[in-house]
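WARN no homologs supplied; continuing
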Amino acid sequence: MLNTEFDKYLEFPTSFPFKVVGDYSEQLAEQVVMVVQKHAPGDYTTSSKTSSKGSYLSVTIRVQVTSKEHIETLYTELAAIEGVRRVL
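OK structure emitted
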């Protein structure tokens, strides 16, 4: 598990933004929503932006999280999506 200090700075539950940056794929936003649904079921909308050369895609999603561990789990699971370079 990650060793973060989110619990020092946030009050739970809270809406938390995740930005997933990966190789360009038309399925990336769908994959992000699928992972989030597994850990925090709900209706989600994403916003996406393609890099200037079209090589990368960033997908932003806000998730209602309930604990520091919930955030850490989502970071780990989102980072495991094939083609993902960073989760911010």
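The CA atoms of residues 36 and 66 lie 13 Å apart.
OK
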